[in-house]
Amino acid sequence: MYQVRRVAGACGGYSIIEIAAVLALLAVLAPPLLGSAARLRTSFCLSRSQEEVARLLAEARWTAIGEGGATVELTADPPWAMLISAAGDTVAEAPLGKGGVALQLSRGRPTARIRYGPLGLGLVSSQTIRFTLAGEERSLVVSSLGRVARR
Question: What is the value of pTM for the model shown?
Answer without folding.
Answer: 0.78
